[in-house]
Amino acid sequence: MDRFSWSNGLLEIDETLVVQQRGVRLYDGDDKVKMELGVALLSTHRLIWRDIKNHVRSEQLCTIKQSHAKIVIHLHPSSPSKEPGPFQNSKYSYIKLSFKEHGQIEFYRRLTEEMTQKRWETTPCFFPPSMQGRKTRAVGIVGIERKIEEKRKETDKNISEAFEDLSKLMVKAKEMVELSRSIATKIKDKQGDITEDETIRFKSYLLSMGIANPVTRETHGSGTRYHMQLAKQLGDMLQAPLEERGGMMALTEVYCLVNRARGMELLSPEDLLNACKMLESMRLPLRLRVFDSGVMVVQLQSHSEEEMIASALDNVLEKGSLTAEEFAKLLGLSVLLSKERLLLAEKVGHLCRDDSVEGLRFYPNRF
Amino acid sequence: MHRRGVGAGAIAKKKLAEAKYKERGTVLAEDQIVQMSKQLETFKSNLEEFASKHKQEIRKDPQFRVQFQEMCATIGVDPLASGKGFWSEMLGVGDFYYELGVQIIEVCLALKHRNGGLITLDELHQRVLKGRGKYVQDVSQDDLVRAIKKLKVMGNGFGMIPVGGSYLVQSVPAELNMDHTVVLQLAEKKGYVTVSEIRDGLKWEKERACHVLDHLLKEGLAWLDSQATGEAHYWLPALFSELTSRDVTPEEANQMTP
């Protein structure tokens, strides 16, 4: 670790950033270095490590080897004219980078690439003597305390500034809320001549601001064009998953599936609900269904009710009796949904229940 | 442009209506909608400016988020209503809470086989934090509560029961009325409750106590320990502390039952 020197972390002319990875811990040989997880940056000339407080160390490249989420880097002995760094001497001539948040494969690949290309030899860079970072590298406990205090003051300042700005913003938002209420009242009292087009526009304004929609839900429900688009997307996206899961998925399952797939610009639960409400009216092959218990599911149109009930009855007949858990295991469904199916079959009179402390069990109805 | 009404007659009628409105000092709704559209544009750019300066604050500081949410609630705005809302798009509040929602659902689902769908807010908080990894944004219990409130609309029985100074989070549509809640609160201290404790503590008859306990058993929220010294103990896995519980996967659980 004594090969590292302080640097300001800025790249020189002719030096380019190759790859960076956060969540990297440094090891001096086999010893853990008393530094937190930071960001490792690989440039064409150097390996730079930056911790979360922005101190930077850098090192010239030499040989490397990979092992188990750690990259071991063997270093040449340091030149006598090396600038000061965090470690004066070390008994090891290799360091390790431990990748706590993965990224080691890519990093290793780029590292080996750079090693073969050896760009630092073809376009030599001059590295200015280390500047100690933007803040003075304070030493000792006093320095640490001072830094903490500075940071706290800065955070405080930021927060109070943020609050001020936020309050001003909220005043304007409030004006819009009042305006929208006035409009909504007028629409309800049917004053003036509002076209459907304008109503739709108004609804989308409410959606943008997050104002609850007080207008009646006749036209397109509380949905907007956005929700209609969403409904179409859902229609495409959910076909395959629904087939796999026997034609039915709980709304919370759909929420997780869709949002995990999106990664960004996630849907709110209300967005999902409003989109699903429009599925039927848009004649898409899915529909939203609410059971008596309040559970909401998305269901494939093609999976008819009778089929489900008949299959439930068949399964129960075969096994003599079934609980929701057993049924779930049999079909590969979630317990919640298999319970709903059994309840449905019971509702039409095909099954009857045995409700005891041991659980709810369903039998074919012989009455 | 839409055609609201054509012909001289319509124009005249409209002029009359406008005049009447001006007389009474009220503004036409259509004009207001136009006005709102303009104000919206201005607001949007103000919000953009705010976001460029303070977006990080919201993401990093749970306290700030609380303040932000409360201010929104005061003026009647729900920043989490839609992912398409300005707040969500520009400040990124939406993604933060919606993703949290996904994580909450996953944790609850993973533990349902053990606690029947009831979990303390503390345990939920711990597990969500563990799942998120160390360098993602800090999540407070207030954040969880707000995310759960949003999850409610999806009808899977998400709810919060006040118990012992904090909350139990329910994630299944089991019906829990006041009686059940009160028994849960009673059980909170030790993690279990007995019929006598209910009779002494709540002054109920035996039947009422048994009825409530049976329901909790049926819903998988309580476990019966008939081998306890004295009378039977009804344990609530949701209330188990770290010390007395060991994580078991659903497969293991199935193998264990005789």
UniProtKB/TrEMBL annotation, chain A:
One of its GO terms (cellular component) is late endosome membrane. It comes from the Eukaryota. Coiled coil: none annotated. GO terms for molecular function: phosphatidylinositol-3-phosphate binding; ubiquitin binding. PROSITE patterns: GLUE (PS51495). Residues 1-127 form the GLUE N-terminal domain. One of its GO terms (biological process) is protein transport to vacuole involved in ubiquitin-dependent protein catabolic process via the multivesicular body sorting pathway. It is found in: Cytoplasm; Endosome. The keyword S-adenosyl-L-methionine does not apply. Its main location: cytoplasm. Component of the ESCRT-II complex (endosomal sorting complex required for transport II), which is required for multivesicular body (MVB) formation and sorting of endosomal cargo proteins into MVBs. This is Vacuolar protein-sorting-associated protein 36. It comes from Nothobranchius furzeri. The lineage of its organism: Eukaryota, Metazoa, Chordata, Craniata, Vertebrata. The gene is VPS36.
Automatic annotation (TrEMBL), chain B:
Its main location: cytoplasm. Signal peptide: none annotated. GO terms for biological process: forebrain development; optic chiasma development; protein transport to vacuole involved in ubiquitin-dependent protein catabolic process via the multivesicular body sorting pathway. It comes from the Eukaryota. SUPFAM superfamilies: Winged helix' DNA-binding domain. GO terms for cellular component: ESCRT II complex. It is found in: Cytoplasm. Keywords: Coiled coil, Cytoplasm, Protein transport, Transport. It holds the Pfam family EAP30. Component of the endosomal sorting complex required for transport II (ESCRT-II), which is required for multivesicular body (MVB) formation and sorting of endosomal cargo proteins into MVBs. Belongs to the SNF8 family. Component of the endosomal sorting complex required for transport II (ESCRT-II). This is Vacuolar-sorting protein SNF8.
